Structure formats: structure tokens, C-alpha cells
Amino acid sequence: MALELQKPLQERAPSPASPRTLFEKIWQEHVVCEPPGQPPLLYVDLHLVHEVTSPQAFDGLRAAGRRVRQPQRTLVTVDHNVPTTPGHLPITDPIAARQMEALRRNCQEFGLTLYDIDSPDQGIVHVIGPELGATQPGLTIVCGDSHTSTHGAFGALAFGIGTSEVEHVLATQCLPQQKPRTMEIRINGSLPEGVSAKDLVLGIIGTIGTDGATGHVVEYTGEAVRGLSMEGRMTVCNMSIEAGARAGMVAPDEVTFNHLRGRRFAPKDAAWDEAVARWRGLKSDAAARYDKVVEIDAASLAPFVTWGTNPGMVVPVTGRVPDPATARSAAERGAAERALEYMALAPGTAIEEINVDRVFIGSCTNSRLEDLRAAARVARGHKVNPKVRALVVPGSQAVKRDAEREGLDQIFRAAGFEWRDSGCSMCLGMNPDVLQPGERCASTSNRNFEGRQGRGGRTHLVSPMMAAAAAIEGHFTDIRRWRFQ
Amino acid sequence: MKAFRMHTGLVAPLDRANVDTDQIIPKEFLKRIERTGFGEFLFYDWRRRPDRTLDPDFVLNQPRYQGASILLTDRNFGCGSSREHAPWALDDFGFRAIIAPSFADIFANNCVKNGLLTVVLPEAQVATIMKRSQEVEGYRATVDLEQRQVRDDFGLTASFEIDDFSRRCLLEGLDDIGLTLQHEAEIAAYEARRFGAR
Ligand code: SF4
User: Fold this and answer.
1) Do A41 and B176 touch (CB under 8 A)?
2) Which helix (H) or strand (E) is B132 found in, with range?
3) How far is residue A440's CA from residue A305's CA, in Å, rounded to a whole number?
4) Burial class (CB within 10 angstroms; exposed 0-12, middle 13-18, buried 19+) of A320
5) What phi, psi does B70 have (nearest 5°)?
6) Torsion angle of the four alpha carbons A333, B130, A205, A359, in this order, in degrees rounded to the nearest 10
7) Which of A334, A313, A339, A314 is closest to A458 using CA atoms?
8) Average of pLDDT values for A470-479?
9) Are strands A174-176 and A41-43 parallel, antiparallel or unpaired?
10) In angstroms, rounded to a whole number, what is the distance separating the alpha carbons of residues A245 and A132?
11) Given an 8 Å threshold on Cβ–Cβ distance, is A246 in contact with B33?
12) pLDDT for the residue numbered B197
């Protein structure tokens, strides 16, 4: 397929006098027009589509007799519903099969390339976009999925949309958008040993709350963010939505360019050099202002574990389940009490004393090669606790192949982890991987909402290393004291 | 899309903050490929006990709130996943408006596209309405989009803000894709300028 994403600009916008943030630069370049009485029309460079949020959008197109305006800017895959047990075809869930079949028909009818279940490129949409090099700096990227914020790690403006908006983008390649506000989250200093990108973002959400960034596009800055790999930056941007943010982004730099170079849809040869020269300008001007600024000291961060039913309910692994009586308001107290009841935890319980039944390493937050390497380093030479069932689900078929080439699958298998095919899997349990009522899970995914991983299931969000360690110990344990072998 | 001008109806109080879209419509019901029929799955895990029978204690199951068409709730309603199945389920269940101190962005967008009005009121006013809806059996309120007001029979007149475009779309029940397509020439010119002639 010919994805055409980064043809050079024919005409550069005149550089405005006032200093601009990274977000503003991308925003301005993508405003098609500003009709009076309407929000600006924003052009969409890349539209990612999956099976769950698209069928009704294609129906809408059909009903109105509309076509897909830019098939070559539309990347389609199946991820949410796919079973991840090896040799999983045919699909046994008839409703899931119907949804995937609908996507196949829609792709055919509207002339879209589909990375189907048997494609070597299949995977979670937020893993394969970057993997194929479709995710690039300076682009506007949307998808009918809230974790589209992941792609902001490349210095793109990427955000989740609903199905009506999916239809809008298919038909027009544009979205009417109110301009969001901007927020800088600056992480000073470097991350302490054993503290991963996941812990960083959990720490951020714990600090600003699950609606701390609502209405804002967040730019992550500071030494600790610069020090992250692309995988780490994706983990952080991925969970921006968990703080309510419209999008999260990191200005591109050498780390970004090195990661992108040579990927399938990345510009080649002279076009590459030209693109990199252009991308180097994609950073906030020194004097640019954000509507809101939050600063966090990296040294204050630790490996985190969530104790409640939203990602902001989080404490260091060395901490204890908080007492609702100490909450700041009646509403917070009520929410904490409800959460503890659902999670079946008593206030004051030491986190390291909480036993787990299941462990899930995967999801668009933490299923990339680096995540699996980190987990495998912990698992090497150990055995999963006999009371625990642990699952490793690579984010894409490509991640799976790479991991197998390095022998990570052997390490996991030898330790007693199940090694699966790629997909969303137990992140939301739309496929057969679900928690049973009352089961407790250490999960590298992004949402610990009630029932997210299965009705009555109890989810604790952690980093890949912390998840692997919990699988082996049978309870949470501080990775900073791990016996690596 | 369905238009919204003014609506008077029974108010159901859902006194919880951070209600996420996984609660509004759990994932096992996302596999339908239609837009309709999601109402019976609304708040499924809260409305139903593990054996799938109705939980009589849950607010929407109480006799006094049957037929409610205005949902009153706490801050950050609709956080989490972008699933438009959430407003579809609320709409299908019979809700026309939701009042809260704040909403998650994507959810609020999705509501507008489905003729469902999200009304943001200050916490103190939400608390007042919450109290009345719990204390006064059959408590009704009026949501008036033209006047941008919420009113009741107990002297409440609360003004709310909404951006002009969303208001117009709701008042007129506009198809916003049609509106965007009126700018086809500008879109084509933009594409030509950025990507060159094809
Ligand atoms: S892995 Fe989980 S959060 Fe990510 S796209 Fe899939 S279901 Fe959504």
C-alpha cells in the first residue's frame, strides 16, 4: 500500500512573530480554514482504523453515499477482538467474527488496505503505526481509540475520537476542532534506578489526577523525558488520556529520528534528509508559553502500584493502601471507600503483601520489544509462582518475531509464562482472555477500572518489570531489590 | 442528527465521580455493529448483580426514577475509552441531557454528535440539584439550550456555557459532515498546497 504522509511542503507558512509551542506549530500548519461561527477545520494526515469503533462509521458513509476521501492516509487493522492463543483461527466468538468480517467488507468496498489477522504486520494499532514508520513527527493522527495519544511520542499531534468523528474523517479527511489549551509537564532530573517510563506516567497521574489535564494537550519536557527511549516516550504519551489530556507529545530529537529511520513508510534518501531538517524545527520556542505548567522531580518517583479503580489511585510499592479517612474531601473519601470495597483491600495493607492470581504483560502501553526485554530480564532464571497464571502478549506480530529472535519467548516459557500472539487481549478482555470475578491481576495495561479485565476482576497497574516480579513472587515486590540472574 | 432545544424531565442522580465509559457500557457489548440497541446494557455491571438479575438498590432501578431523562452526576463523567457506544447507550436508555461539574473531552464530543446535551454546572449547583432529586419524589428539571439555562420548580435558574457551534448543531440537528463538505474547495486547495497536485 502507498501511504503518502510526508510530501514536502510546497509553500511554507510565514513564520509568525510570536513564540509558539510545539503543539501550536503543528496545529497552525493543519488548519484548513476557519469558517465563521464554526471551529477551525483541522486536516488529518493519518487515520488509524480498527474493528470496534468503525462499523457504524462505514454504515454512515454508505447511507449518505459518501466515499473515503484519502484511502492512502488510512491504515486499518484488527486488534481489540482477536484471540491471542496460538493457532487461534477460526475465531470461535461469532459476534467478534462478525465485527471483523464487517471490517473486511468495508475495506474492500471503500478501497482500504487492511492489516488483517493473518498479516505479518498485524498488531495493536498503536504499536504497528510507529512500527511501520507511519507515525512521524509533525503529523496529525487520529483513531477511534483514546490511546491514540501514544503517537504523540514522535512529536505528532495525535488524539482519540468517537465513531461519528471516524466517519467525519473518512469522508472529509478533516475534523472541526476547538483549539485545546496547552500544558507543560516538566520532569526535572533523571529517573532513579528501577523506575521506568510506566512509573513516571503513573506518578504524573497520581500527582495531577485523572482529570488534571482535561481540555489540554500536554507536552512532556525535561531531562528525564529526553532520557527516555522511544518506547518509554510512547508509554508516557499513551497514558496521557488517563489524566484526561486531549493529547500528549514529546518534541522529536535524535532518539526519534534514529528510531524512525529505515522504517517502511518513513521518507527515504533525500526526502529523509529534508524531513529531518524540517522536524528539527518541531520544538517549543524558548519563550513560548503554556496555559498550565506542572513540574515534577524525577528523584521523587518510585516503582508504583495502583491500589484502586482509576489510574490516579497509586502509591509506591513500598507504601500502603491509603486510609479513606484521610481523604481531602467527602467525595474523595466516598470514591476511595468504594474502590477499596471493589478491590477487597483493607486500609493500611502493605502493597508488598498483596497477592496476585494473574499477571498480564501486554497492551498498547507496555508490549513493545523494550518492555518484553525488561520483563524477561526479571524472569530469567526464575519460576512463576505456582498460584499465578501469567501471560505475555506482544503488541504486534513484528514484536513477537523480534522477541523470538532474541530468545525472549524461551526465557518466558522456561519461567512458566504463557507466550501469546499479538492483540489487545487482557487489556480489556474483549477476546477470551478475561479475569474471573474476584481474581487479582498485576497488569502492565493502562486502566484499572471496575470490570475492565473481566467482571469483578481486580486490576493493579504496574511496569513490565514489576509485573514479572509479581508473577514470580506471587505478590508485589520492589524491583529495586530484585535478584537478577 | 436529533435536534435539542428544550427538555423537561425526571432527574436521576448518579452520585459518583469519574464514571468511566467501561462502566457506562462494558466491553462485552461493543461487538454489535449497529448504533442502536445499547440501552439495555447501560451501566450493566451496576444495574445487574453477578447472577444478571436487576439490583433493586441501583439508582436507575428504583421505581421512583423510572422514565428519567436527565442524568445528574459528579465530575469527570465519561472518562476513559472513546467508545461512542457510551452516548448511544445513554440515548437509547432514554436520556436526553446529562448534568455534571465536568465531562471527559471525547465523551462530551461524542454526545454532541448524537443530540445528547452535556451541561456543565458548578459543583455547588450540582449539589443542590442532587439533593432535590434525592429528596423530592418525581423531581423534574428543565434544560433549555436556547436560553442556556437549567430550571426547576423550586426556584433554581442556573446558567451554563456551551460553545456556539455545538449549540447550533444541537439546536438545528445539523449534519456536521455536510457542513465540512461545504468547504470541499478549501480542503482540496489545502491538499494541493501541502502535497502538490495529484
Ligand atoms: S491495548 Fe488496551 S488500551 Fe490499547 S488499544 Fe487495545 S484495548 Fe485499547
Assistant:
1) no
2) helix B123-135
3) 13
4) middle
5) -125, 125
6) 70
7) A339
8) 98
9) antiparallel
10) 26
11) no
12) 57
Structure-block grid coordinates of residue B18: 469519574
DSSP string, B18-60: S-BHHHHS-GGGTT--SSS--GGGTTHHHHB-TTSSB-TTSGG
* Ligand 1 centroid from CA A445, angstroms: 8
CB–CB of A219/A186 below 8 Å? no
**Cβ-based neighbour number of residue A261 at 10 Å:** 13
C-alpha cell at B146: 436556547
Query: Which amino acid residue places its CA nearest to atom 4 of ligand 1?
Result: A364
The residue of chain A nearest to residue B177, with distances taken between CA atoms, is: A168
Cβ contacts of A28 within 8 Å, gap of 6 or more: A13, A16, A20
How much is the pLDDT for B11? 98
Phi, psi of A158 (to 5 degrees): -130, 125
Ligand 1 atom, smallest distance to A430 CA? 7
A341-390: pLDDT as tens digits: 999 999 999 999 999 999 999 999 999 999 999 999 999 999 999 999 99
| Confidence band of A8 (pLDDT split at 50, 70, 90) | very low
Q: Where are the beta strands (DSSP E) in chain B?
A: 6-14, 70-73, 97-100, 117-120, 140-144, 149-152, 157-159
CB spacing of B187 vs A310 below 8 angstroms: no
Cα distance from A69 to chain B (closest Cα, Å)?
10
Q: How far apart are the first and last CA of chain B?
A: 35
What are the pLDDT digits (tens) for A423-469? Answer: 888 998 777 789 999 999 999 999 999 999 999 999 999 999 999 99
Q: What is the pLDDT of residues A43-52, one digit of tens each?
A: 999 999 998 9
Over range A298-326, report the average pLDDT: 97
Question: To the nearest whole number, what is the mean pLDDT of chain B?
Answer: 95
Return the exposure string of A17-39: e unless at least 16 CB atoms fall within 10 Å of the residue's CB, then b.
eeebbbbbbbbebbbbbebeebb
Residue A104 binned pLDDT confidence (cut-offs 50, 70, 90): very high
Query: What is the band of A19 on the pLDDT scale with cuts at 50, 70, 90?
Result: very high
Q: Is the separation of the CB atoms in B85 and B43 below 8 Å? A: no
**Do residues A465 and A374 make contact, with C-beta atoms less than 8 angstroms apart?**
yes
Q: How far apart are CA A31 and CA A207, in angstroms?
A: 33
Q: Residues 123 to 162 of B: which have CB under 8 A from any A CB?
A: none
Atom number of ligand 1 nearest to Cα A428: 7
Rounded CA-CA distance B46/B49 in Å is 7
- Please work out whether the CB of residue A80 comes within 6 Å of at least one atom of ligand 1: yes
Identify the helix (H) or strand (E) that includes residue B125.
helix B123-135
Q: What is the pLDDT of residue A7?
A: 52
CA distance A247 to A264: 25
Please report the pLDDT score of residue B108 as a whole number: 97
